[in-house]
Amino acid sequence: xxxxxxxxxxxxxxxxxxxxxxxxxxxxxxxxxxxxxxxxxxxxxxxxxxxxxxxxxxxxxxxxxxxxxxxxxxxxxxxxxxxxxxxxxxxxxxxxxxxxxxxxxxxxxxxxxxxxxxxxxxxxxxxxxxxxxxxxxxxxxxxxxxxxxxxxxxxxxxxxxxxxxxxxxxxxxxxxxxxxxxxxxxxxxxxxxxxxxxxxxxxxxxxxxxxxxxxxxxxxxxxxxxxxxxxxxxxxxxxxxxxxxxxxxxxxxxxxxxxxxxxxxxxxxxxxxxxxxxxxxxxxxxxxxxxxxxxxxxxxxxxxxxxxxxxxxxxxxxxxxxxxxxxxxxxxxxxxxxxxxxxxxxxxxxxxxxxxxxxxxxxxxxxxxxxxxxxxxxxxxxxxxxxxxxxxxxxxxxxxxxxxxxxxxxxxxxxxxxxxxxxxxxxxxxxxxxxxxxxxxxxxxxxxxxxxxxxxxxxxxxxxxxxxxxxxxxxxxxxxxxxxxxxxxxxxxxxxxxxxxxxxxxxxxxxxxxxxxxxxxxxxxxxxxxxxxxxxxxxxxxxxxxxxxxxxxxxxxxxxxxxxxxxxxxxxxxxxxxxxxxxxxxxxxxxxxxxxxx
Length: 598
Known about the structure:
With 598 residues, this protein is of the alpha+beta class. 33% of the residues lie in helices and 21% in strands. Helix 4 packs parallel to helix 6 (349-358) and helix 8 runs antiparallel to helix 9 (431-451). The chain is globular. The model has no long low-confidence stretch (mean pLDDT 96).
């Protein structure tokens, strides 16, 4: 089986992993999502081609014939059924426990595999091969009567099981006559009945996720797709701090041999803004509240000064980029990067995204902690920074590494920062501050309308005084800078579609960057086009294009960052929060109303 992104995420907002179509856990990091990949074969040697490949956890049947996989409804609990040539079936249930216990949420860094005989007498072989130091070597192990400890990495792990330990440590073929339970987690004794406890964990984890899904306000159409996207966005949260990572993976290339391999396991303020915006449309206030705590800490640390585009999930500012020399990369297409140089970039849109993420808390009475006057005061220096930088060069939201310009998207987000501070001040009754921030917003708007409007071409340009096209121009409607009926916007949408659309899909931009010309489309940009088509009155085109994107999802119902122009293959990090945000937003916008069936 060739490595692919046809992967099923599991997780609990502390642990996360990806399972391939053979039922192997091929990617999982410890002690956090941005840590050392203890299961690293997604970026390592392919187990189907190399018998000594390391970095995965598999359950294999003798004379294996087929594999069938699906999630338990409305959960991230994966059920894999493996059938042999004689018709014997083994079932593997994979999940990370999450439920309320002792007045708090229990979400350990732990992976549970329950293996059950379903038909006949399947003969199975379990291969548990974690790695340390980014694939440098197999983890050292010690064994006890019911456990194996894996040591040498950032975190010592212990797998406790009721299967014969020698069967697992020796990767021995054995008859699956009774259910097997396996709990891989912290190096602690499992002081309870393993089978009864893991079955209880399965039941309570199922109940937790189905209860959470019940709180969502989903559209009438495409409910299954929206629910799966929402669950996966929640899995991309590091709940301890409130961070939301852009993706679970690093270094999946944007296209074959591209060298565009980036580490996305960090919290981009921009991406997180889009995530909470999408989940807010579904009524998921828990994600917003937790992320606002993360943002308040970022703002406090910056004291209104420079804010980076991204931070570690523990608020770390330094994410020095390096190469992991011991992993060959996805399908051998390195380099494998750890860290991200973008933490050093100037990306001025982040000041807008901080305030756009926060402003709802001044109006939303559902929240446990509504925003206060003190919160407003702490945001004002962020607004001042946005005003100061709105007409200054930056690396843009696309994180160009070799050039800077004054980018229209960044300027518009700086306008949004000032505009929304005016809204918040008015809500708090601070009328003088409302006038102040509305005045600031008017100044920024005038600058953008003068500098970003290309009179010769009759449309907005991606940079001040330039003529470039950029899909982010489609977002001018979303942040209410212009209305979709504005003829300037209609001309801009037409130009962006003509210049950047490739078949059904959209590029971010078409000009060469630090790595040459883009050779794949960017999925969130296609969703932005769908929104623009719908708002422009081209509703049927929008629905057709949306259905096209739904057809390109993996078996898990998810999308990565990029897609080939012919739609044949997904590329880029996975699962990509940007892409899932686009799916949710478009489904919410395009769906028939519930009133049509009630």
